[in-house]
Amino acid sequence: MEKTLIEIHDEARKEHVPIMLDDGMAFLLNYIRKHEGVRDILEVGTAVGFSAINMAKIRWDNTIDTLEINPKMYEKAIQNIKNEKLDDRIHVHLIDGAAFETNKIYDLIFIDAAKSQYRRYLEHFMKNSRIGTVFIFDNLNFHGIVDNEELSSNRSTIQMVHKIKKFREHLLNDDRFITSYYEVGDGIAVSVRKK
Ligand SMILES: C[S@@+](CC[C@H](N)C(=O)[O-])C[C@H]1O[C@@H](n2cnc3c(N)ncnc32)[C@H](O)[C@@H]1O
Prior knowledge:
This protein is α/β, with parallel strands linked by helices. It has helices at residues 3-14, 22-34, 50-56, 71-83, 118-124, 155-173; strands at 40-44, 63-68, 90-94, 108-111, 134-137, 177-182, 188-193. A seven-stranded mixed beta sheet has the order 3-2-1-4-5-7-6, with helices on both faces. The radius of gyration is 16 Å and the shape is globular. Bound molecules: S-adenosylmethionine. Residues 18-20, 44-45, 47, 50-51, 67-70, 73, 96-97, 112-114, 117 line the site of S-adenosylmethionine (SAM).
C-alpha cells in the first residue's frame, strides 16, 4: 500500500472509524481488478474516504459517487481525497444514502452504511442499475453476531442482527440477482443483477 494510504488507514483505525476490515477490502479491490467493466461506482458509506480512494486507484478512469451522512466524516473524506488529487473522480455527497437521487447507471454499487437499511438501499438504487450491475454488501456477519447471537446481550444489537439475517436470506432468494456469499472480512455478499 502507498504511504499516504497507510496513513489514512492507521489514523482511521486509531480513531475507531469503522473502515472495512483489511481482508474484506482486499476482496473488494480484487473483484474490481478482475472485472474490467467496473468503471462507474456508487458507494453508500464513505467514512474518511479510505475505500473510495482505494477503488479509484485501481483504474485511472474509474469514477465514484460516495455518500456520507456524518458531516465530520464528510469533511475528513473531502480532505483525504483532495490530498490524493482524486477530487476530479471521487464525488462525496453529504446526504442520507436513501435520499440520494441521480439518473446515473452504475457498474458497481457498494453498500457499507446503516446495516438496518440495506433492503431500502437495494430497492432505492435498483433504478441506478442495469443487468450486469453488481451490488456488494459488507458487514453481513456483523462481527460474527449474526450467526452467534450469544455473543451479544444488547437488545438493539440483537434486533439489528435479526434484520441483517433477514436481509441475507432475502438476497439469496431474490431472483433478480445471482448472489454469492463470502465469509471474508465481516461477511460480504456479491449480487449480480440478472433481470
Ligand atoms: C462502515 S463505515 C464506511 C467505511 C468505508 N466504506 C471504508 O471502508 O473506508 C459506514 C459509514 O456510513 C455512514 N452512514 C451511516 N448511515 C448512513 C446513511 N444513512 N447514509 C449515508 N451514510 C451513512 C457512517 O457515518 C459511516 O461513516
